[in-house]
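Weekly sync, protein design subgroup
Attendees: M.S., D.O., the rotation student, P.L. (late)

Item 1: inverse folding check
M.S. brought a backbone from last month's batch and wanted to see whether the design step gives back something sensible before we order anything. D.O. pointed out we never logged the input encoding, so this time it goes straight into the notes. Structure tokens as presented (558 positions):
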């Protein structure tokens, strides 16, 4: 954590309260004869007869290994080492302090970085037990510096939940991770002595991005002859529009050659400050198809597809090596298709979806795991009674989906990717819900959505190399090493789709290919990607091509 270690020592001046360091006027006479005087009056020339220690003011934090029995055991073990089997032993003040220091170390090792055990001024009773007290050091005020667009309470919300609790490094680190998840800002922390005795204040230092928005421009050839082979894309993301860490995003894509489709999407997310990692989301997307060229032009095929949704996301585990997020969505989806002025289908469903996503950093084997699991359930079928596109579909369906990616680092410049994406349903689904095979994110030797199925899976294995043979050589682009700019990869794809009713023969798809990615971060984060793949199985593409299929895209981010 930024500045925690340095600031901890500054906070330790509050380790022992004032009444433990110097006696009050009312008790000065009594403490003048105390066996353990105020700290300023202690000297190692004096010894005390000690039978043991009694530890007070210990909180209950069993998950951290801190509770009264365990801290008493630490003191008992330290006394046993000093006593060497004797029931009573004469100890100097520095030896007494060493026992308190052992308890302090136990707290520090558990992450309580400002907690301190101390010896208050006292007169031992007939039991000859020395009292040790613990000042756990609680979190006091939370303040924010450097924020202009962000509201201070939005940045400090994760840490405000820790106010009044003992300052534990792991808790503050976790809260800072939530603050750092907020878009368009980076956050560091500084500890300083609190305004109240026994408290430590936390100062959050915010560094906001130069602009609150990010603009993306790009293009690709991910379309088909029916929808338009080329697409121009534009998007904007506005971070913290209300100063609350909210995110508004708008994206638009327009097809070219031929100009027969367009896609637009809007989304908005708003963090719920009272619960760390919780945010409400709402969004909509719409695509429109109108065939005006090619063999289907005379049919006048047209039809919009739209989705409106609302829900929530909750990242309930957030650490450096593990993040778990749950999601819930309520969706209203619709797909229409007409030809020759007649409606062929009007499919409308209300759908509920629950999902779980995981990201795990594998430090031992130098890899990253990404996992997504979701279940979709239709709640209401509002479709038109006549459906000539999917006449045998089920009105109510359940779908389970799974996606997994493993990124395995081999060397500094070499990586392996394993990908799996699958869907299972016992119901006959509409095209909106079916599993699609083919395209730049599936089997790359086939056109987009070359085949659909109620059930299916896709898997891929990829080997990536950064500028093989000249990774560390300086490039002509501001001297950046080539490994930061150029990436080559080879891949193999496999997919299979099934019909839930078993009436269609399962279809298999196989392909292999190569790819190249070129980046220029200093030039508006320019990135260009191209891949070429050939079918390696017996399955023919729906467009009749059997040569290498090339997918390419480029983009700028401002």
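Designed sequence read out in the meeting:
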């Amino acid at each position: 954590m930024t500045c925690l270690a340095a600031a901890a020592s500054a906070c330790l001046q509050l380790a022992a309260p004032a009444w433990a360091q110097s006696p009050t006027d009312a008790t000065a006479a009594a403490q003048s004869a105390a066996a353990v005087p105020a700290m300023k009056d202690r000297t190692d020339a004096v010894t005390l007869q000690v039978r043991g220690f009694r530890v007070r003011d210990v909180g209950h934090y069993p998950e951290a290994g801190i509770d009264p029995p365990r801290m008493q055991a630490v003191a008992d073990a330290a006394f046993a080492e000093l006593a060497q089997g004797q029931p009573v032993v004469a100890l100097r003040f520095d030896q007494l302090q060493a026992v308190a220091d052992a308890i302090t170390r136990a707290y520090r090792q558990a992450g309580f970085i400002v907690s301190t055990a101390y010896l208050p001024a006292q007169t031992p009773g007939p039991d000859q037990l020395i009292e040790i007290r613990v000042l756990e050091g609680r979190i006091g005020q939370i303040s924010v510096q450097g924020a202009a667009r962000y509201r201070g309470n939005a940045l400090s919300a994760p840490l405000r939940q820790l106010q009044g609790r003992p300052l534990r490094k792991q808790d503050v680190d976790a809260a800072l991770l939530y603050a750092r998840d907020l878009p368009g800002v980076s956050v560091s922390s500084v500890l300083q002595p609190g305004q109240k005795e026994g408290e430590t204040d936390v100062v959050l230092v915010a560094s906001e991005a130069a602009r609150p928005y990010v603009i993306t421009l790009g293009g690709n050839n991910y379309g088909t002859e029916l929808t338009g082979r080329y697409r121009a894309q534009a998007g904007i993301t506005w971070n913290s529009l209300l100063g609350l860490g909210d995110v508004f995003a708008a994206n638009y894509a327009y097809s070219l050659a031929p100009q027969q489709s367009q896609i637009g999407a809007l989304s908005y997310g708003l963090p719920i400050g009272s619960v760390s990692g919780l945010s409400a989301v709402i969004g909509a997307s719409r695509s429109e198809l109108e065939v005006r060229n090619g063999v289907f032009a005379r049919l006048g095929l047209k039809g919009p597809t739209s989705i409106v949704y609302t829900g929530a996301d909750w990242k309930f585990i957030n650490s450096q090596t593990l993040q778990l997020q749950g999601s819930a969505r309520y969706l209203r989806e619709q797909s229409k298709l007409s030809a020759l002025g007649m409606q062929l289908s009007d499919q409308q469903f209300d759908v509920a979806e629950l999902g779980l996503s995981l990201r795990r950093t594998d430090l031992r084997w130098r890899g990253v795991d990404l996992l997504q699991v979701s279940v979709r359930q239709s709640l209401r079928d509002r479709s038109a009674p006549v459906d000539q596109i999917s006449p045998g579909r089920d009105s109510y369906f359940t779908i389970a989906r799974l996606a997994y990616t493993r990124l395995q680092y081999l060397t500094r410049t070499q990586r392996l990717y394993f990908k799996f994406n699958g869907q299972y349903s016992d119901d006959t689904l509409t095209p909106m819900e079916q599993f699609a095979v083919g395209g730049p994110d599936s089997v790359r030797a086939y056109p987009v959505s070359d085949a659909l199925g109620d059930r299916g899976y896709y898997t891929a294995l990829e080997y990536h190399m950064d500028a093989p043979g000249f990774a560390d050589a300086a490039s002509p682009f501001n001297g950046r090493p080539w490994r930061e700019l150029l990436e080559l990869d080879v891949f193999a794809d496999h997919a299979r789709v099934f019909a839930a009713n078993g009436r269609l023969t399962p279809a298999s798809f196989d392909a292999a290919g190569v790819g190249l990615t070129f980046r220029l971060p200093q030039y508006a984060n320019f990135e260009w990607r191209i891949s070429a793949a050939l079918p390696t199985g017996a399955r023919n593409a729906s467009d009749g091509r059997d040569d290498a299929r090339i997918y390419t895209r480029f983009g700028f981010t401002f």
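Discussion: Residues 4-135 form a domain with the Ubiquitin-like (UB roll) fold (CATH 3.10.20.310). The CA atoms of residues 445 and 533 lie 5 Å apart.
Action: P.L. to compare against the previous round before Friday.
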